[in-house]
Amino acid sequence: MGQPEPHDLHLRAARLADAERLVELTTQLGYPAELSAIRRALTERAHMDCAVLVLERHGEVLGYADVGVVHTLHASPRGELFGLVVDERQRSAGLGARLVAAAEDWTRARGLTTLRVRSNVIRGRARAFYERLGYRTVKSQHVFERPLE
Ligand SMILES: CC(C)(COP(=O)(O)OP(=O)(O)OC[C@H]1O[C@@H](n2cnc3c(N)ncnc32)[C@H](O)[C@@H]1OP(=O)(O)O)[C@@H](O)C(=O)NCCC(=O)NCCS
Question: Is pLDDT at 68 greater than 70 in this prediction?
Answer without folding.
Answer: yes
